[in-house]
Design goal:
The complex is a heterodimer. Chain A is mainly alpha-helical. In chain A, 81% of the residues lie in helices and 0% in strands. Chain A has two domains: 99 residues, no CATH class; 81 residues, no CATH class. Chain B has two domains: 133 residues, no CATH class; 46 residues, no CATH class. In chain B, 80% of the residues lie in helices and 0% in strands. Classes of the chains: A mainly alpha, B mainly alpha. The interface between A and B is large, with 95 and 109 residues.
Chain lengths: 187, 180
Amino acid sequence: MIYIKLFLVFFKIGLFSIGGGLATIPFLQEIVWKYGWITSQDLLDMIAISESTPGPIGINTATFVGYKTAGALGGIIATIGIVTPSLIIITIIAHYFGKINEKPIVQAGFYGLRPAVIGLIGAAAFEVAKVSLFNIDAFLKTHSISTLFNIKAIVLFGIILYLMKKYKRHPIIYLIGAAIVGIIFKY
Amino acid sequence: MRELLELFIVFARIGGFTFGGGYAMLPIIQEEVVEKRGWATEEEVIDYYAIGQCTPGIIAVNTATFIGYKLRGIVGAIFATLGMVFPSVVIITIIATFFTHFQDYKVVQHAFGGIRVAVVALILNAIVKMWDKSVKDYIGVLIFVISFVIVAFMHISPIVVIVASAIAGIIIQGRRAGIK
């Protein structure tokens, strides 16, 4: 039955993809080759759409493949499949975490971990900045500094930083505001 | 029951406004979970991210599950996780049903052009807020710089960074304890 198969395939993806949504892509490619539920072109489109809609990319692609394969219920089942391993594994870890997190060795580990996580978050911001604030690709072609900066984006960036410092509103306000500015001024 | 419903709604709001990977949701987690409700501290959220990064599954979901479990046990974990994925399921189902080339619409591209700029600003702001609690001394600054550079420029897996930095922390703190 297709629903059980969908659940199992996405359960496997949830179990073996470590480190974020893009880690699921090789497994999705396997779906193209092995099961033929979707084509390579479908997969490319799905990744593009998943990146242009809210929600974690890994979840968006799971819902999408499930939907294409077996309709709305398929989308729900694929999504439940991909999160079930997380639910089990994290629940076990969270259960023991409360008991061991005060131990000196664990605290020492987190002393090294926390700045590293901040570095990872910084790297994630840098990835987004590369395609929004800067035009790295154009710069590499022309080697002209004037093409490196996306002036329109940097102006908006400065305005948002200023407003955040001054008003400290909910992040959602800035996201919606930036989307509206993006549409009006064709970002 | 009311708290479970709140867990679901808060994580649905977080899922509905996460643009990009799990790290993009950090500013909203800070606002909703840490500052407004006190469900977790800044340090705990960072610790959950570290664990979520090197365990199977999607980081955003792992973090939601962790916070849900902390508040209300297994049922809390399930409600937070379902909340996190709910907007994706609804939005993607609608798009898959009605739009064949959603990402090609000019209005979508322009909106995302603006959103990406806001995402960079929001993440930077989140980092500034977390800095004091995560980076305690010059060794912390060094670990931050190294992990940023090797992930941003050398494209080494974040899992390697997480494992190596934890080992480094244990060795450095162990030596300090030995000296004392």
